[in-house]
C-alpha cells in the first residue's frame, strides 16, 4: 500500500548533510579570522581546487556512473535540463531589466539561476528519504526495495551531473569572464582623435556577450575555445571514455589494469567539495565588502527564482508531460529536482576562475544554504504528495 502524505518526513541524513556543509564553511570562516587562512592561502587553495581536485572529481564520478546506453535511453534528463536552462536564462534577463542591472550583473544573475546544486545536496536527500516510508512512492516495480529505488535515483542524479558540469564549466565560465571597463565604452568610429587608439587596442580587447559592441568578436572568442578550463577538459575526457566502453573498462572494471590510476584520481577528487566549502567560508571573511547598489536586489531575485519560481515551473512541466517518457516516478522526481534547490557551491569556483563576483557568490551561497533546509523540504513533500496522487 502506498503511504499517505502524512507519512512523508524529511530524512535526517539530508539535514545532517546540510549541517556538515555549513560547519565546513564556518571552519573556513574561523580559519580566516584566526589568520590561518590568509588571502594568499585562500587563492592557492582555490587554484588547487580548480586545476587539480575538481577535474579529478568530475572525471572519477562521470566514468564510474554513466554508460553510453544510459545516455541515450534517459533522454528526458538532458531534454528537461536544456528547457530549464533556457527558462532560467529568460528569468535572468527579465530580472536584469526589472532591477535595471548592467551587463555584467545580469550575467551574474543568470549564472546564479541556471546552475543549482544537483549532486551533493540531492544525493544526500535521496539517502535521507531511503529511511522513510515515503521512498515507496518512488517505486517503479512491485516489491522494489528502498535501497534499489534510491540506487536508481542516484544513477539519474549522476547522469544529470554530467550535463550540468559540462554547461557550468563552459557557459558559466564564459559568462563570468571579466571584461575591461573600456570594452563597454562606445567610441565614435569617425572620431579622428580616438580612431588610432581604438585600432591599437582592438586586438587586445576581449568582448563578452549581451551588451558587447563587437558581436563578431564574441563569436570568435567562443569558437576559439577561450572559455576552456581544467574542469571542462576533465568532463570532456570522461565523456570520451564512456563513449568507448573498452577504454572505460581499463579503469573501472573488476581487475581492470588501470584500477590503481582510477582509485588515485577518485581519492584526489574527493577533496574537491570539502575544500571548496572551506575556501567559501574563508572568502566570507576575507573578501572586501561590496558597495554595489543592487547587490541585495540581485541576491534576493536569484533566491526567489531558485526556491519558488523554478520549482513551480519544474513541477508543472514534469507532471503534465509524463505520458511522453517512461512511467518511472523516480525519474519524475529527479527531473523536478533539476529545477529546484540552491545555487551550486561550485559557482564560487567559477568566480575564482574568472576572478570576478567572488564576494557576491559567497554571499549568495551563504544565504542559499541557510534557506535550503526549509524550502527544499517543502518542495520534496509537495512533489511526493502530487506524485502519489498522480499514480
Write the layout of secondary structure elements.
Layout: H1 12-33, H2 39-65, H3 68-73, H4 76-99, H5 103-114, H6 120-129, H7 146-176, H8 192-202, H9 215-223, H10 230-243, H11 245-252, H12 259-269, H13 272-286, H14 295-319, H15 329-337, H16 347-354, H17 358-390
Overall description:
The chain is globular, with a radius of gyration of 22 Å. Helix 14 runs antiparallel to helix 15. It is built from 17 helices and no strands. The relative contact order is 0.19. It is mainly α and 391 residues long. The protein has one domain (5-178, 207-390): Up-down Bundle (Na+/H+ antiporter like fold), CATH 1.20.1530.20. It comes from Dentiscutata erythropus. InterPro entries: Mem_transp_PIN-like (IPR004776).
Structural class call reads: mainly alpha
User: What is the straight-line distance between the termini?
Assistant: 12 Å
Strand and helix order: HHHHHHHHHHHHHHHHH
What is the CATH level 1 assignment? Answer: Mainly Alpha
At the fold tier of CATH, the topology name is: Na+/H+ antiporter like fold
How many structural domains does the protein architecture include?
A: 1
Number of helices: 17
User: Roughly how much helix do the residues carry, as a percent range?
Assistant: over 70%
- The total strand number stands at 0
Q: Which regions have little confidence, pLDDT < 50, spanning 5+ residues?
A: 1-13, 182-216, 219-224
Mean pLDDT: 78
Sheet having the most strands: none
Assess the beta-strand content as a share of residues. Answer: under 5%
Q: State the CATH architecture.
A: Up-down Bundle
Q: What integer value in Å does the Rg equal?
A: 22 Å
Which word captures the global form?
Answer: globular
Amino acid at each position: 500500500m502506498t503511504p499517505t502524505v502524512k507519512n512523508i518526513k524529511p530524512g535526517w541524513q539530508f539535514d545532517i548533510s546540510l549541517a556538515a556543509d555549513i560547519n565546513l564553511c564556518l571552519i573556513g570562516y574561523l580559519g580566516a579570522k584566526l589568520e590561518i587562512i590568509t588571502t594568499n592561502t585562500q587563492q592557492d587553495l582555490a587554484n588547487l581546487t580548480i586545476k587539480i581536485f575538481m577535474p579529478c572529481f568530475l572525471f572519477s564520478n562521470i566514468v564510474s556512473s554513466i554508460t553510453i546506453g544510459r545516455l541515450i535511453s534517459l533522454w528526458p534528463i538532458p531534454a528537461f535540463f536544456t528547457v530549464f536552462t533556457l527558462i532560467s536564462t529568460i528569468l535572468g534577463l527579465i530580472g536584469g531589466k526589472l532591477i535595471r542591472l548592467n551587463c555584467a550583473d545580469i550575467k551574474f544573475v543568470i549564472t546564479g539561476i541556471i546552475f543549482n546544486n544537483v549532486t551533493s545536496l540531492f544525493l544526500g536527500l535521496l539517502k535521507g528519504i531511503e529511511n522513510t516510508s515515503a521512498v515507496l512512492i518512488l517505486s517503479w516495480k512491485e516489491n522494489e526495495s528502498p535501497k534499489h529505488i534510491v540506487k536508481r535515483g542516484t544513477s539519474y542524479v549522476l547522469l544529470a551531473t554530467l550535463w550540468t558540469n559540462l554547461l557550468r564549466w563552459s557557459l558559466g565560465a564564459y559568462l563570468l569572464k571579466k571584461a575591461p571597463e573600456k570594452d563597454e565604452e562606445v567610441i565614435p568610429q569617425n572620431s579622428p582623435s580616438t580612431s588610432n587608439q581604438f585600432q591599437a587596442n582592438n586586438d587586445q580587447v576581449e568582448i563578452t556577450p549581451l551588451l558587447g559592441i563587437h558581436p563578431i568578436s564574441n563569436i570568435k572568442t567562443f569558437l576559439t575555445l577561450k572559455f576552456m578550463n581544467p574542469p571542462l577538459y576533465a568532463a570532456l575526457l570522461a565523456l570520451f571514455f564512456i563513449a568507448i566502453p573498452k577504454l572505460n573498462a581499463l579503469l573501472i572494471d573488476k581487475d581492470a589494469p588501470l584500477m590503481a590510476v582510477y582509485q588515485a584520481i577518485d581519492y584526489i577528487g574527493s577533496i574537491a567539495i570539502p575544500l571548496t566549502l572551506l575556501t567559501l567560508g574563508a572568502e566570507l571573511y576575507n573578501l572586501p565588502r561590496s558597495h554595489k547598489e543592487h547587490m541585495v536586489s540581485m541576491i534576493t531575485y536569484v533566491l526567489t527564482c531558485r526556491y519558488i519560481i523554478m520549482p513551480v515551473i519544474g513541477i508543472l512541466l514534469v507532471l503534465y508531460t509524463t505520458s511522453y517518457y517512461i512511467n518511472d516516478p523516480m525519474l519524475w522526481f529527479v527531473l523536478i529536482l533539476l529545477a529546484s534547490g540552491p545555487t551550486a557551491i561550485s559557482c564560487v569556483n567559477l568566480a575564482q576562475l574568472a576572478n570576478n563576483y567572488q564576494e557576491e557568490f559567497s554571499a549568495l551561497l551563504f544565504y542559499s544554504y541557510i534557506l535550503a533546509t526549509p524550502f527544499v523540504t517543502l518542495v520534496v513533500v509537495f512533489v511526493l504528495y502530487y506524485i502519489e496522487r498522480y499514480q
